[in-house]
Design brief:
The protein is mainly alpha-helical. The protein contains 9 helices and 2 strands. A two-stranded parallel ribbon has the order 1-2. β1, α5 and β2 form a beta-alpha-beta unit. The longest helix is centred in the first third of the chain and has 15 residues. The two termini are about 25 Å apart.
C-alpha cells in the first residue's frame, strides 16, 4: 500500500489532519458526524474506506476556504518506488500531483524526489528541477579520493576516482 497512489494519499491526508485536527470536520464531514453523534458503532469498519480518504483529500486540495488560513507543502520522496497497476501508472500519478498545484497554485507546493526516469523528467521543466547528484559530485570526488589515498598519486588514481563517481549515478552510499 505504501508504494501506491492511494497509500500516498492516505499518508498525506493523515499528516495534514494529525497536525491540523480542526480540519477533520471539513475534510471528512460524514465520518465526523457519525463519530460526534456517538454512533461510532455504525461505522462498518474501524478503518476509513479508501473512497472517503480520496474524497477527503480532494476536499483538502480544492476547498478555497481552507486556504484562507492554510497552505501546504508536501515533500514526497521516492516517486520511482511507485508500484502502479495497469489502470494506475506513474504517468497518471504525475498528472495527479501536478493537478494539486494547479488547483491551488499559491497554497499547495510539492517537492518530490526520484531517480531520473523519463516519466518524471517529462513532468517537470528543467527550471523546476534540482539535480542533486550534480551538486554533490565534488563532495563525492573528495570522499572517493580520500578513500583511495593509499594509492600512489597519478593519473590512474584520478581516472579510478572519476570512474567510481561516474558509476555511482549520484547515489552517495
Amino acid at each position: 500500500m505504501q508504494k501506491s497512489r492511494l497509500g500516498l494519499i492516505y499518508s498525506l491526508l493523515y499528516s495534514v489532519l494529525d497536525s491540523h485536527r480542526e480540519l477533520i470536520p471539513r475534510i471528512l464531514p460524514g465520518l465526523w458526524k457519525i463519530v460526534m453523534s456517538g454512533r461510532s458503532s455504525e461505522l462498518p469498519d474501524p478503518k476509513i474506506h479508501h473512497k472517503d480518504v480520496e474524497a477527503g483529500f480532494a476536499r483538502l486540495i480544492s476547498d478555497p476556504k481552507l486556504y484562507e488560513n492554510h497552505s501546504f507543502c508536501f515533500f514526497i520522496d521516492g516517486l520511482d518506488e511507485f508500484e502502479g497497476s495497469y489502470q494506475e501508472d506513474a504517468k497518471l500519478l504525475m498528472q495527479q500531483l501536478c493537478s494539486w498545484t494547479t488547483n491551488a497554485p499559491d497554497n499547495v507546493k510539492l517537492c518530490v524526489s526520484s531517480r531520473e526516469y523519463n516519466v518524471f523528467m517529462n513532468a517537470f521543466s528543467d527550471s523546476n528541477r534540482i539535480r542533486l547528484h550534480q551538486l554533490t559530485r565534488l563532495d563525492m570526488m573528495h570522499y572517493v579520493s580520500d578513500k583511495l589515498e593509499h594509492l600512489e598519486h597519478g593519473t590512474d588514481k584520478v581516472k579510478i576516482t572519476k570512474a567510481i563517481v561516474d558509476n555511482t549515478n549520484g547515489i552517495f552510499l
